[in-house]
Design a protein that fits this description.
single chain, about 300 residues, Rossmann fold, 2 domains, six-stranded antiparallel beta sheet, 8 helices, about 30% strand, disordered N terminus
């Protein structure tokens, strides 16, 4: 993958054109209504929204994003990751301000940007266009915004994905969808040994978690100190294997406690290998199995900050 372009080369801060991309697999009635409310709010603010749901047309639109004020992704974290990877690298995400209208299960990326799902407030943030740079993670040539993990949680993600795509369609997912797949993984997952080389520091364990942003989902907060622009990925290695230890790690992370078998650090590059087939997930989507090479792309993305203006 080539390097990202410098900011300002492709953006149009004075432009009123806004590119809006919807997830074609998440186009149910409520999401379509949210998209309609968003485009209406944009038009009322004298913007010119270009709305695209079709995946084939999306590729054509993303081939040239010159002159757009910003890009809005309607969907969840996986939708954001998919769009970022679809952007051509000679016009990659760094120069085009990105935000999202959350329409997924966790919407962690939206939470990090301060987006609450209100289309009118989102349009206000687009009008102000207060932007900042974020790092991205890159795993074997594909970028991610939040995290990449190897181990039990990735196994659950793989099982849910296989269930969704059975029969040639794409089933909708809710939080309840995960319950039977978590239960099945607790019975069947074999906890292969996973080794990481993080800037020359080596650890072996049963679970590996790499964070670009301090977001994981649910009540767990495994990487509260992760910084989104520090040029590094925060890693967490959990040594011991088995259901009992897995539940113990969950309790420890909930309490914010540590132990000798929990290792933390920061690294620019991480190599993940495995004695067996350790599943991988990035931003809630399956991304194959180890081995995998991961690196940070410092300040490789421009985002619209929707948090309230500082006092």
């Amino acid at each position: 993958m080539g390097e990202f372009v410098e900011a300002g080369q492709i953006t149009g801060e004075s432009s009123r054109r806004v590119l809006v991309l919807g997830n074609p697999y998440n186009g149910h009635v409520q999401t379509r209504e949210a998209a309609s409310q968003l485009t209406q709010a944009l038009e009322q603010a004298a913007f010119e929204p270009v709305l695209c749901w079709d995946r084939d047309r999306r590729a054509d639109v993303l081939s040239d994003v010159t002159g757009y004020r910003c890009l809005i992704v309607i969907g969840g974290d996986g939708s954001v990751r998919e769009v970022l990877n679809a952007l051509p690298r000679n016009g990659g995400p760094v120069g085009l301000p990105v935000t999202t209208l959350p329409a997924g299960n966790e919407n962690l990326f939206a939470r990090h940007l301060g987006v609450d799902g209100d289309p009118v407030r989102l349009v206000g943030a687009i009008e102000r266009l207060r932007t900042r740079r974020l790092d991205l993670g890159e795993a074997d040539g594909e970028v991610f915004t939040l995290m990449l993990t190897a181990g039990f949680d990735a196994e659950v993600v793989h099982r849910v994905s296989e269930w969704r795509h059975r029969g040639g369609g794409v089933a909708r997912v809710s939080r309840r969808t995960y319950v039977p797949h978590i239960a099945d993984s607790l019975r069947r997952y074999r906890y292969p040994k996973i080794t990481i080389d993080a800037d020359g520091q080596t650890y072996t364990g049963s679970h590996v978690l790499l964070f670009n942003l301090p977001q994981y989902g649910g009540p767990l907060d495994p990487a509260p100190d992760a910084q989104d622009d520090d040029g590094a990925l925060d890693y967490l290695v959990l040594e011991r294997r088995g259901v009992v230890r897995l539940l113990g790690y969950a309790q420890a992370l909930l309490r914010g406690s540590e132990g000798r078998d929990i290792h933390r650090g920061r690294a620019r590059r991480v190599r993940i290998t495995c004695d067996g087939a350790a599943p991988l997930q990035a931003d809630g989507d399956p991304v194959g199995h180890a081995p995998c090479d991961v690196r940070v792309l410092p300040q490789a993305m421009t985002v619209i900050d929707s948090h309230p203006d500082p006092a």
